[in-house]
Amino acid sequence: MTDAQQLINYARNQFNEIAADVERHFDLVAGNLKERFAKPLSAPPARRLPPPTTWQLAQRWMYKHKALTAAIVAFFVTGSVGAFVYVKSRDLKKKRRAKRSQSGARTDVVVVAGAVTNPLTNALYLDLERRGFVVYVVANTSEEEHFIRSQSRADLIPLSLDLVDPFMAQNQLARFQNLLGSEQRAFDHAEPHRLNLIGLVVVPDLRSNPARVEDISSEEWSDALNAKVLHTIATTQHLLPAVIEHKANVLFLTPSMTATLKPPMHSVESTVYGALQGFTSSLAAELKQDGVNTTWFKLGNIDIPAATAKQRRDGVPAPRLKPTPLRTLHDQVFDTLVAKRPSRTLHVGRGSLTYDIIGSVMPPSFIAWMMGVGSRPRIVRDTSDDDLQGSAGSLTWEKVDQERLDA
């Protein structure tokens, strides 16, 4: 055998070995793949859903019982409306009367400080006397004392308070405190009882004639601040010892519709309102430390029968929006006087809460647009006390709407 033939045989053997190795490798791979795919694939574990919530269960139940759900909703809506109407009617029919002693004598005392001839103040202290309180009305002059006595009410008594002479005022209030501390008898051989001061009702006079700031003299500013701000502060200051001693509730009643909007031509009323607001807030914080509650009544448009009757006689048309009845204010005042924890602020009267929100939240540009931009407000000089409708000189809803339409 030649060398060339030996080389060819060697190459053929090497090739056969390589081909055999490749074939064995492919057979091994094919066997592995066959075994792999022959076994069934295991499914991934099922994901467990969280348990349904109470709201989801309720939704499923409502979806399955649509008719019954509608009936239940209708029942609750009707019942809520009926309960609201019932509570309101019961509240109106509720008899609000002051406590009496075993002998039938009146024991609860209320002091009212404000403009005596003001229709709102007059209606307030007359209603308190009818409800069974012994009402003392602060009188600074002999004319005011005569006016109070002319009401011919046995338990409506003037409380003389001379603010010009502080020593005289202290002596007058000392006699009043001695009267509260001494025993009283309704009749001979009756059980003695003591008078209890349960409340001080302050009705500041915020009325002022509309005028531009440049037309108000310094004397008018001084008179307004003295008569409306300092007079209220001095009266309250003199009565505080008795209030703190008896833990009586303090009520401030102020008209708020005009003052919260701060319209033009009402700078005096807005200034007085702001000063009394700061005084009331500070006083409430101080009295809270002594266990005395202070409530600020923000009054809106209230129907005062005396003022309404005079307006009808004068031919003034009735307002389009009916004012809040005066009885609502009287009921709120009574509930606040006898409450142990009365509210800090109460809105009584149509427009009070609405204008308070507008004046505190809305920008001045919106208020100016509402009042009528570019139009001069008409000056209406109301000097009569009988023209008071919640507050003399205050803007009612109808006046504001009319000025906006005229603009």
Describe this structure in words.
This protein has 14 helices and eleven strands. The chain is α/β, with parallel strands linked by helices and 407 residues long. The strands form three sheets. A seven-stranded parallel sheet has the order 3-2-1-6-7-8-11, sandwiched between helices. A two-stranded antiparallel sheet has the order 4-5. It starts with a helix and ends with a helix. Residues 379-407 have low confidence and may be disordered.
The succession of helices and strands, N to C, reads HHHEHEHEHEEEHEHHEEHEHEHHH
Oligomer: single chain
- The overall strand count is 11
Per DSSP, the total helix count is: 14
Q: What's the N-to-C terminus distance?
A: 131 Å
Q: What is the 3D form?
A: elongated
> Proportion of β residues?
5-15%
Say what the CATH topology is.
Rossmann fold
Mean pLDDT: 81
Percent helix range: 40-55%
CATH architecture identity: 3-Layer(aba) Sandwich
The CATH H-level superfamily is NAD(P)-binding Rossmann-like Domain
Which class in CATH terms?
Alpha Beta
Strand order of the largest sheet: 3-2-1-6-7-8-11
Poorly predicted runs of 5 or more residues: 379-407
Number of separate structural domains = 1
Q: Supply the helix-strand structural class.
A: alpha/beta
Radius of gyration: 42 Å
How would a textbook summarize the main sheet? 7 strands, parallel
